[in-house]
Amino acid sequence: MGNQAWMAVTIFILTYVAIVSEKIERTKIALVGASFILLLQVLSQHEAVAAVDFNTLGLLIGMMIIVAISQKTGIFQYIAIKTAKMVKGDPAKIMIVFFLLTAIASALLDNVTTVLLFTSIIFAITDVLEINPIPFLISEILAANIGGTATLIGDPPNIMIGGATGLGFNDFLLNLFAPVLVIGIVTCILLYWIYRKELCVAQEKTAEVMKLDENAYLGDQGLLKKSIAVLVAVMIGFAFHQTLNFESATIAIAGAAILLLISGMETDQVLQEIEWTTIFFFIGLFILVGSLEATGVIRVIAQYTMDLTQGNTVYLHFFLLWLSAIASAFIDNIPFVATMIPLIKVMAEIGNMDVTSLWWTLSLGACLGGNGTIIGASANVVVSSIAAAHGRPISFGYYFKIAFPLMIVSIIISNIYIYLAYLR
Predict the structure, then answer these.
(1) Reduced to 3 states, what is the DSSP secondary structure of residue 225?
(2) What rounded mean pLDDT belongs to the chain?
(3) Alpha helices in 295-332 (DSSP H)
(4) Considering all CA atoms of the chain, what is the largest pairwise distance in Å, rounded to the nearest integer?
(5) pLDDT at 25 over 90
(6) Digit-coded pLDDT (tens) for 187-240
């Protein structure tokens, strides 16, 4: 490799280490790393802009706008309280139902947005019940990452894979729904078994939950109807975007623009709700990975991987699955997937092979592997930050003890699925 390649590798590794250390906010680090790529002329400005995947950014921004407007109606909180009352305030049933709700919402929205919406409700209910919220929060994290694995828009790694490959909403649903369903059921059962002794409260406490008024959370009825109509239209658009020859970002941005127009809300008010730190983190990351691709580093790694697995398709899938899972548990799965996408593309070129099944392998490994530690995925970090703010911090060790074995179970199930579905 030449000097430019070594500079790209050095900057990338230093940036990665800084992100994992969590000493400085990751968006700052990613943008500084990207800036050095430009200042040292590893990439020109034109090449750096070309490296940014605007389909991914457009999809993220569009969905963030739709959810930011929709959550003003209180519909998500209404559903959560209504559900808790339907199960008569039973803590075990509440945990199971919230697991299902979080998984479903994460598949249809995105897992970061979902945990932001539901974490406050979990604290409200557990405060009334005077019960430890940690089991519910861990269940929420696991459900968010599992549910988000099922669709194009559910988890940032899937959004990135879809943006880079042209794989659509239906492709993700058809290939990932079955394993996610099995993994979700198994994880929910195991969580209940782990926490069954902690999910017991006095009867008078469950009665307090029944007194909560879900209708108090509902706001503007007109905005609620508009939000639901646009959200349904966007979901239908995702289902048919390949047939209509539209990128997924086009559907999301169009839905966001229409809802912004008809909502009556001020644009700057809505845009303040967008997670701009996440958007700029992606921009910095795309430039960093683009430098590895442009300088030939990705091709060298791809060739090494092909040599290591001796071109055996089964070995390659299993190696990628477990590498993705373990790596994503200890480093954020977003930068990991950003690195792996061009790597798989180059492997396809070197080996002259159809790598479609490798995309599903990467998705399962990275999204589910993110459950392994408290820093493994964005949803985990968000929930742990909110928990700490409520005086209920989730330690790395405690989370690891509960979640890492459950993550390994999910990867074993994924391994079986990949073999049966694509490798027999």
Answers:
(1) helix
(2) 86
(3) 297-308, 313-330
(4) 71
(5) no
(6) 999 999 999 888 877 777 777 778 778 888 787 888 989 998 998 898 888 778
Note whether 192 and 151 are within 8 A (CB): no
Alpha-carbon distance of 77 to 413, in angstroms, equals 33
CA–CA separation, 33 vs 27, rounded Å? 10
Give ∠ CA 107-108-113 in degrees, rounded to 5. 85
pLDDT (average), residues 314-328: 89
Q: What are the angstrom distances between the C-alpha of 340 and each of 32, 77, 307?
A: 22, 37, 17
By C-alpha distance, which of 366, 403, 407, 367 is closest to 148? 367
Rounded Cα distance between 297 and 5, Å, is 6
Res 332 pLDDT > 70: no
Is residue 3 scored above 90 in pLDDT? Answer: no
Judged by average pLDDT, the poorest of 121-135, 299-313, 355-369 is: 299-313
Sign of CA dihedral 229, 233, 334, 177: positive
* Token pair in block for residue 383: 């929930």
- Assess contact for 192 and 96: CB atoms under 8 A: yes
Do the beta carbons of residue 62 and residue 249 sit within 8 Å?
Answer: yes
Residue 404 has pLDDT above 90, yes or no: yes
N-to-C CA span, the chain: 38
Spatial separation of the C-alpha atoms in residues 313 and 175, rounded to whole Å: 18
CA 107/CA 399 separation, integer angstroms: 23
Rounded to 5°, angle at Cα 52 from 148 and 364: 25
* DSSP codes of every residue in 193-222: HHHTTT----HHHHHHHHT--GGGG---HH
For the whole model, what pTM was predicted?
0.77
d(Cα 9, Cα 296) in Å, to the nearest integer?
A: 10
Helix axes 248-263, 156-165, angle to 10 degrees: 120
- State the CB neighbour count (10 A cutoff) for residue 313: 16
Tell me the three state secondary structure of residue 354. coil
